[in-house]
UniProtKB/TrEMBL annotation:
Record comment: activity regulation: Appears to be allosterically activated by the binding of pArg-containing polypeptides to the pArg-binding pocket localized in the C-terminal domain of McsB.
Reaction equations catalysed: L-arginyl-[protein] + ATP = N(omega)-phospho-L-arginyl-[protein] + ADP + H(+)
A Pfam family reported for this protein in Swiss-Prot or TrEMBL: ATP-gua_Ptrans
Family matches, as PROSITE patterns: PHOSPHAGEN_KINASE, PHOSPHAGEN_KINASE_C
Positions with a binding annotation for ATP: 27-31, 92, 126, 177-181, 208-213
Enzyme's top EC category: transferase
Ranges of residues in domain Phosphagen kinase C-terminal: 24-255
Provenance organism: Litchfieldia salsa
Annotated NCBIfam families: PRK01059.1-4 (NF002194), PRK01059.1-5 (NF002195)
Superkingdom, taxonomy of origin: Bacteria
Name of the featured protein: Protein-arginine kinase
Protein role: Catalyzes the specific phosphorylation of arginine residues in a large number of proteins. Is part of the bacterial stress response system. Protein arginine phosphorylation has a physiologically important role and is involved in the regulation of many critical cellular processes, such as protein homeostasis, motility, competence, and stringent and stress responses, by regulating gene expression and protein activity.
Length: 365
């Protein structure tokens, strides 16, 4: 399979769409945690009860069309290969916990992969909606519509005082986790991020790495999300997050302007050195690739590079993860083999972009 066909098949369609503030905010996500009434939560449920939950959603919602999202397809975790599950994690469609630790886990996934419903993760269901750019309110609206649709056919575990009941006390109340993925290279280069993170934490928000709790901020990509779900409305939670993200956007833009004014030639040199590494390396580890991709994306946003799409960071940060590399290779790869395959894929992807930009015919062989 050619790389172009692999990308078309592998990358979620929403990732190639434009969204507000996409030079800094890569994506917005809303997740709602819900449990069914009169059934033990997944952490305590018997095998039969867990199977019943999967069968319920398979019967009621699989192959059903929702709004403009399209048909929902049920993916049983027990029927997927380890590489397939890893790819779903790398695309942020399911959690590592569902992929690795849920013996009766499943996922309902929409055609465009904007919407996924994790089944028997930490809670019976976790509704997730992903949008490109800074679109928290739009993501919340879609998630709530799906939540209402599901609630017409099932009864949720709900308490009048506490709200929606969840396995983890930190999710009780609205059950809402709202988050954005942000590319903040200038705040890192100007050494401001170390003081910004504690300030954000004091506001009831949390800053994590690319894949959530316990992960690194590869490629200067940070996930900003709420910590408090109880005592606030969904609109308040999203509003507070929007306000902080808006300030971060402003600070990142100011830091980029300052770098251009004070260190323009050094910044341009950094961008093109990173581009040279990506375009010519035969072996590259994931951390170095992420760092170089971040530099190149910054160069695109600042106008140093004009013949590459800004979506290339979103794409390659996912395509160069271990699961995708092995999926493209058609089998398991040792870490050293992944480093070679990663370098090859990046070179091919950059050549493909150049051909598209220059209007040249792409070889499909």
């Amino acid at each position: 399979m050619s790389l172009e066909r692999f990308i078309d098949k592998a990358i979620s369609s929403w990732m190639n769409q434009d969204g507000p503030e996409m030079d800094i905010v890569l994506s917005s996500r809303v997740r709602l945690a819900r449990n069914l009434e009169h059934i033990l939560f997944p952490t305590l449920a018997t095998n039969d009860e867990s199977k019943d939950v999967v069968q319920l959603f398979a019967g009621q919602f699989s192959q059903q069309h929702f709004s403009n999202i399209g048909e929902l397809e049920l993916l049983d975790m027990n029927e997927l290969q380890p590489i397939e599950k890893r790819v779903l994690v790398e695309k942020h469609l399911i959690s590592p916990h569902l992929a690795e630790d849920s013996p009766f886990g499943a996922c309902l996934l929409s055609e465009n992969e904007e919407l996924s419903i994790m089944i028997n993760e930490e809670d019976h269901i976790r509704i997730q909606c992903l949008y490109p750019g800074f679109q928290l309110e739009e993501a919340l609206k879609t998630a709530n519509e799906l939540d209402d649709w599901i609630e017409t056919q099932v009864d949720y575990a709900f308490d009048e005082k506490r709200g929606y009941l969840t396995s983890c006390p930190t999710n009780v109340g609205t059950g809402l986790r709202a988050s954005v993925m942000m590319h903040l290279p200038a705040l890192i280069l100007t050494q401001q991020m170390s003081r910004i993170i504690p300030a954000i934490n004091q506001l009831g928000l949390v800053v994590r790495g690319t894949y959530g709790e316990g992960s690194e901020a590869l490629g200067n990509i940070f996930q900003i999300s709420n910590q408090i779900t109880l005592g606030k409305t969904e609109e308040d939670i999203v509003g507070d997050l929007k306000s902080v993200v808006g300030q971060l956007i402003s600070q990142e833009r100011s830091a980029r302007d300052a770098l251009v004014k004070t260190s323009n030639i050094q910044l341009e040199d950094r961008v093109y050195r990173s581009y040279g590494i990506l375009a010519n390396s035969r072996i590259i580890e994931s951390k170095e690739a992420a760092k170089c991709l971040s530099d190149v994306r910054l160069g695109i946003d600042l106008g140093y590079i004009s013949d590459l799409s800004s979506n290339i960071l979103n794409e390659l940060m996912i395509l160069t993860q271990p699961g995708f590399l092995q999926l493209y290779a058609g089998g398991a790869l040792r870490p050293s083999e992944r480093d070679v395959r990663r370098a090859t894929l990046i070179r091919e992807r950059l050549k493909l972009e150049k051909k598209k930009t220059n209007g040249m015919e792409v070889d499909e062989s």
